What we know:
Elements: E1 2-7, E2 20-25, E3 35-43, H1 48-51, E4 69-79, E5 89-95, E6 99-102, E7 108-109, H2 126-139, E8 146-150, H3 155-166, E9 170-175, H4 178-186, E10 192-195, H5 202-209, E11 214-218, H6 223-230, E12 233-241, H7 260-265, E13 269-272, H8 282-295, E14 302-306, H9 311-317, E15 326-330
Parallel strand pairs: 8-9, 8-11, 9-10, 11-12, 12-13, 14-15
Antiparallel strand pairs: 1-2, 3-4, 3-6, 3-15, 4-5, 5-7
Bound molecules: NADP nicotinamide-adenine-dinucleotide phosphate.
Residues 45-47, 126-127, 130, 151, 153-157, 175-177, 180, 220-221, 225, 242-246, 273-275, 318-319, 321, 323, 327 line the site of NADP nicotinamide-adenine-dinucleotide phosphate (NAP).
Amino acid sequence: MNNVILLNKRPVGKPTLNDFTFTNAAIPVPPTGHILLKTVYVSVDPYLRGRMNDSKSYVPPFEIGKPIQSGIIAEVIDSTHSEFKKGDFVSGILEWKEYQVSNGKGLKKVDQKISSLSSFLGILGMTGITAYLGLIEIGAPKAGETIVVSGAAGAVGSVVGQIGKILGCSVVGITGSDEKAELLKSKFKFDYAVNYKTATDLNKAIQNVCPKGVDVYFDNVGGEISDAVLSNINKYARLPICGAISHYNDTEVPVGPRIQPILLTKSAMMKGFIVGDFSAKFPAAINQLAIWLKEGKLTYIETIVYGFENIPQAFIDLFEGKNKGKMIVKI
Ligand SMILES: NC(=O)c1ccc[n+]([C@@H]2O[C@H](COP(=O)([O-])OP(=O)(O)OC[C@H]3O[C@@H](n4cnc5c(N)ncnc54)[C@H](OP(=O)(O)O)[C@@H]3O)[C@@H](O)[C@H]2O)c1
């Protein structure tokens, strides 16, 4: 039997298990020139929440009654395709199915000799590339500057901070627990970490650990955390807007401080980006990340959840901060 997860209904606010349906079907038979894939690892990502809304964005919305898709590592278990053979492992945007047929389009072979299979969904995959390109291309940090990153103990944030240290910057992470704050300093070598859930005055807490002000703010979360960082930026600060997870479940348009006067008086640049904007630079980014990984300059952690049936819960748990590093489901 082939287990499949469909979008049951569009979530209102925070997603719940009722927004997903489990169904099953026969294992498909690949036509000539196609491959049969068995899912091995499934990436759950905050951006999937946006695809569950019926709104126009940079990727089309998921359809109700159709399978959800995300980054997946799969094993080729049958093939008459010229480029893929049985036993190969591939990564690509695939459906939340245990088995599926593909014509190979958009799939990339991944090599376990280079790194673990799951790492191609994280540090050597979309989130690692996002951290690298967002920081280098927009943040443009210089040695000696101060970088603040929110969502710091997650897949993107933990890589941003480490790259900041490689480049000779002072790095501050903002995260949601003392345990994660400790991890940022001990494992990822951040200079300071701030727990946004326990800080009584976040603005002051950031000021205390950024005595020279903030030169680069890599924003993964938006909201009040970002308001507090903005009050501490330096002249010519760069602010890559990578994510805004604190707003993904909003049902009303959020209201906050007017930021134009700060950007104006600090001659600062705030720039949103989607990692796909830089697709021509993916090979170079992966190459650099792999070199740093091999040299031991970069490290990563993953929160692995086991079982196909637990994919929706793992996705929901991202909004509760239950992951450290990349959240991945092993089938
Ligand atoms: N622009 C792009 O192309 C691109 C690509 C990839 C990812 N992203 C974005 O980058 C961000 C990080 O993605 P990721 O894959 O690395 O996820 P992640 O950080 O591994 O996981 C999400 C984390 O967000 C934090 N969080 C959840 N709700 C929050 C809230 N209301 N306020 C503050 N923090 C909250 C939680 O950590 P705490 O325990 O610290 O709260 C949670 O662990 C997301 O916003 C994502 O959409 C953008």
